[in-house]
Design goal:
Structural class: mainly alpha
Number of strands: 0
Strand content: under 5%
Distance between the termini: 38 Å
Helix content: over 70%
Protein name: DUF4890 domain-containing protein
Radius of gyration: 28 Å
Order of helices and strands: HHHHHH
Shape: flat
Number of domains: 2
Keywords: Signal
């Protein structure tokens, strides 16, 4: 009976110690995450005038702007939104241009190959994409670890360091 009791106390102590190592986790700020998602999805579809109006209205609510300040802020937001749209359009055009060049290069390459070589290449690419798809989950799991090691190199403490000691 004494052995059983001492083993039970030992196991409960080990279990308690393991949970104590975990530490308190910080709650995720859902508001900021949701807002970023909202900005990404909806702002892309809006015109610069709509973006400027929306941002100005939000700032007016938060800062209680006067009508003069509101007009100046609107002009500033409008200029910024127009620049953003130009940059976005340029990125889209560059991406499309690069994609067309890549496809043209691919067609030239495939014209050189025989039918048998094309099928071998197609199988090779299918295996590669399947392998990369499987590795994607692994990369997501290890992402935090890589980020932590970069911070350690820079001399910054990480959440994991704070929990351990």
């Amino acid at each position: 009976m004494k052995k059983f009791l001492s083993i039970a106390i030992l196991l409960s102590g080990i279990t308690f110690g393991a949970f104590a190592q975990e530490g308190a986790r910080k709650p995720v700020d859902k508001k900021s995450y949701v807002r970023k998602e909202f900005v990404r999805k909806d702002m892309v579809k809006m015109t610069p005038e709509q973006i400027a109006k929306k941002r100005t209205d939000q700032l007016e609510k938060e800062l209680k702007l006067t009508s003069k300040q509101r007009n100046e802020v609107y002009k500033l937001q409008l200029d910024q939104a127009k620049k953003f749209k130009k940059q976005q359009d340029a990125r889209v055009k560059d991406r499309e241009k690069a994609r067309k060049e890549h496809l043209a290069q691919r067609e030239k390459f495939e014209k050189i190959l025989t039918q048998e070589q094309r099928s071998i290449l197609k199988n090779k690419m299918a295996k590669r994409s399947e392998h990369n798809f499987k590795r994607g989950d692994e990369r997501k799991k290890n992402f935090d670890r890589r980020d932590d090691s970069k911070r350690r190199i820079e001399g910054k403490r990480t959440d994991r360091d704070r929990r351990v000691g």
